[in-house]
Amino acid sequence: MSTEMSFERALTQGDDGPAVRRAQEWLTLSGLGVKIDGVFGPATVTAVRDFQSRVALEPSGVVEQQTFLRLVSPIATASAPITATASYGADIVRAGEQHLAQRPREIGGQNRGPWVRLYMNGEEGTEFPWCAGFVSFLMRQAANGRALPFEPSESCDEIAQRAKQRGLFRQGGGTVPADVGPGSLFLVRRKDAPGFHHTGVVVAVNPDSIVTIEGNTNDDGSREGYEAIRRVRGLGALDFVVIPG
Fold first, then answer.
1. In terms of domains, do 58 and 25 share one?
2. Please, what's the b/e burial string for 194-225 (b: 16 or more CB within 10 A of its CB; e: otherwise)?
3. According to the model, what pLDDT value does residue 243 have?
4. Are residues 187 and 129 part of one domain?
5. pTM for the full model?
6. Do 59 and 111 fall into the same domain?
7. Could you list the residue range(s) of the whole structural domain that residue 118 is in?
8. What is the per-residue pLDDT for 245?
9. What values do phi and psi take at 205, rounded to 5?
10. CB-based contact 184:139 (threshold 8 Å)
11. Domain count, the chain
């Protein structure tokens, strides 16, 4: 279980530190915006009481275990095991849909917040773009005991390299190779240097576009966005990783 879902201790007014900051992140993600400063002051008490009233808990203003579990329930729901079917690729898409239903997004700054830490093994910050971490989390979640086609990575370039070593990398060239289907990965080539700077999951293939699920993007398709969403992308500058099965 991710540390993002681990209850450490009850939090009350006057407390400070990372655990308070995490509670403030979840309060803000829940629509009760508070300053994310790691200090449990009067405003945080009020936000906790409002949240508790919203979810039918005693409005004590204390983040005890029940309140904490309700705060982090989106990440727990998104991370729930995926029952394996005959198609690993389809299961990756199902995992992606399960996450999208909980609206993963950054909070507290660029590449920051509990969702980023979940996908990036506890890391966060400007130097940790999380698109590859998102894809890798989905791959591991959907595997559910199955052998992975290659070891996932939080780096787009490493994903490409490891896929090449297993014979799973496909050049796009403005088209989608015939063996790329739901659950396969797309990689966006860098414009001015070798390598890749963004990745996501293929949901469906159209004659001149793909439907995707991807993290660290936005409605403009940025590679440094702030959320995980479903998108439709043209085929220019895309290569692919085939996910067998």
1. yes
2. eebbbbbbbbebeeeebbbbbbbbeeebebeb
3. 96
4. yes
5. 0.95
6. no
7. 87-241
8. 76
9. -115, 125
10. no
11. 2
